[in-house]
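Work Package 3 (structural annotation) set out to generate three-dimensional models for the target panel prioritized at the project kickoff. During this period the team completed the workflow that converts sequence records into discrete structure tokens, so that structures can be stored uniformly alongside our sequence database. As a representative example, we reproduce one entry of 350 residues exactly as it appears in the project archive.
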Amino acid sequence: MKKKVAIVFGGRSTEHAVSCASAYSIAKNIDRELFDTVLIGVTGKGEWLPYRGEEERLLDGSWEKEAGARGICSLSKGIEALEECDAVFPVIHGQNGEDGTVQGLLELTDIPYVGCGVLASAVCMDKVFTKKILQAAGVPQCRYIAVSRRVLRRDVHAYDAHIERELGFPCFVKPANCGSSVGVHKVASGELLEGALLDAARYDSVIVAEEFADGREIECAVLGNSDAAASVPGEVKPAAEFYDYADKYINGVSAVCIPADISRGEAAVVKALALRAYAACGCSGLARVDFFLKRSGEVVLNEINTLPGFTDISMYGKLWDFEGMTYRELITELINLAYDKKRENMRCTE
């Protein structure tokens, strides 16, 4: 008997359009012999809209008008639609979706869902807390300074000397709780620091200033729950100064090399660190773990993405495809892992 899977997408996030594209890819590739799908979109205003129209309309945003015409635009109606389903594939990237908020809602509905739970989602979305946990787990990473928007509002130059002394230039400035390279700046000199910090502060109350890692961008896909496996590492060769939003989701002109042209020993280190970080943060289901391979040969972790992109040019699916798992098989495996996680996490409430 077929399972009914809700694909939840959109959201009040800077990554709204990316989420819609990911939902489209999942809906077009899910195994229809095993699953029926229910599309539930969340608008940029936070309205929950069950959508029954053509999947192609997810790509240009026109789904909202069609779904909204039905007059169903509340969280309660969205939950009613969820409760008719056997499992949920949440694909809301970024804030208000990937950060544990939607996962908390799904825990309350008691429906199996794909991906990390509340704690791991929240921790991995917050770059500062991720760094603290990884430091305790012995995972090497770039040096950083946490910057408060509240302090910047009092004195925009409050961190200038500290950043220049501890990190130097160039360095990276990024919001602590954003993804897809939104609000990220490579800062070449002190003169450019103010503008980068203020722009990043538009997206979050905490900003991360991070040392520049002069090296190659290596990514590793992790799949599974307590017995997770790591894929062969892949490499991104950005067309711009770094792998930015446009390159990831719009023009796709960066070169992607799978497997990465690195030594067997370097690949083993990347895979081992990916699994260590995954376990340390309590991840389940899936994550893409991003690294820098420095010119010195040192491997340092950049970040963990608990809900990586699922568009047709996204790295996560490509890495598992190289390992012999098709995109359709990957979607099925993730849904199966959701059921496994639900069974593993059962506890007595009496």
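The chain has a mean pLDDT of 92.
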